[in-house]
Amino acid sequence: MDLLGFIIILVKVLVVFAATMITVMGMIYAERRVSAFMQGRLGPNRVGPKGLLQPIADGIKFFMKEDLIPSGADKPIFILAPAILLIPALMTFAVIPFGSSITIFGREIALQVADVNVGILYILALTSIGVYGIVLAGWSSNSKYSLLGGLRSSAQLISYELAMGLAVVSIILLAGSLRLNDIIADQQGYFLSWNVFKQPLAFIIFLVAVYAETNRLPFDLTEAEQELVGGYHTEYSSLKFAMFFLAEYANMITAAALTVTLFFGGWDVPLLDESSLGLLGAILSVLSFILKMAFFLFLFIWVRWTFPRFRYDQLMRLGWKVLLPLALVNIFLTGGYLTLTAMK
Amino acid sequence: MGIAFGLISGSFPSEKYVRNSISLSCGNLKYYSKFADSKRVKKSMYRDFGTIFIFIFLGIVLVYVPLLIQKLVAPSNPNPDKLATYECGEESEGSAWVQFNIRFYVVALIFLIFDVEVVFLFPWAVVFNELGMLAFVEMAIFLIILLIGLAYVWKKSDLDWVKYNVKYGRGRYASLIEKPKPVQES
Question: Which of A142, A205, A339, B183 has the highest local Cβ count within 10 Å?
Answer without folding.
Answer: A205
